[in-house]
Amino acid sequence: MALETMASTLAKLTTVVHDATTKHTATVIFLHGFGDSGAGWAPVGEQLSEYVPHVKFIFPNAPALPITANGGMRSPAWYDIKSLSTIQHEQDEQGLLRSRQQVMELVREEVDKNKIPANRIVLGGFSQGCVLSLLTALTSEYRFAGVTALSGYLPLHFKIMTMVSDANRKAPIFWGHGDADQVVKYKYGEQSVEFLKEHKYTVRFHTYPRMGHSACPQELGDLLSFFNEVIPEELPVMAKA
């Protein structure tokens, strides 16, 4: 399937934005989890911005979708959930690809309108947002600075390697997962990381003891270190005397 030929009539995602407080030279696009909104993660961007003032944080809002596992009730989600029992169940490929296109529009806006090179953009997310950010980054022709995958899993494992581009084969992937996660089980994260490493992706797997399906100060500190490494503040070039 040609991913970039999907109809461009999809609604533009609404976002919560925390602008850079100094010269804007890098962007983090971070996708929330199921049932949440961009506002749920915005305080994290505000907190981290103190240490990376050159970074703009974009927190998109997922649309409300009917969720099969919840009897068809609508909830903010990036794709439908067919079952909560295992990641091996039927996955909502159409929903994933639709949301991927919407996220890519945000990427293009940063690159084309705001003149931020793709290699100064980090794409990431938590839970469902992690799943979507992995799919988007691995199949994108843009070469990102890195990917942050928190408490999620690799989607469409049965075919994703037929969909990937070469652009992000060497992009560093920060993966954080709590070993007490009962929503997206820790073993799913382990299996996904193993799979990616087998296919020669660079994944840094961080385990957080006793952490459930959430984030913790240590993880956020590690995330900040990752940002400082892959999208460091660009020092002004000194004019020659």
From TrEMBL:
It holds the Pfam family Abhydrolase_2. Transmembrane segments: none annotated. It catalyses: S-hexadecanoyl-L-cysteinyl-[protein] + H2O = L-cysteinyl-[protein] + hexadecanoate + H(+). It comes from the Eukaryota. Residues 16-230 form the Phospholipase/carboxylesterase/thioesterase domain. InterPro entries: AB_hydrolase_fold, LYPA1-2/EST-like, PLipase/COase/thioEstase. GO terms for cellular component: cytoplasm; nucleus. Belongs to the AB hydrolase superfamily. AB hydrolase 2 family. Hydrolyzes fatty acids from S-acylated cysteine residues in proteins with a strong preference for palmitoylated G-alpha proteins over other acyl substrates. Mediates the deacylation of G-alpha proteins such as GPA1 in vivo, but has weak or no activity toward palmitoylated Ras proteins. Has weak lysophospholipase activity in vitro; however such activity may not exist in vivo. This is Acyl-protein thioesterase 1.
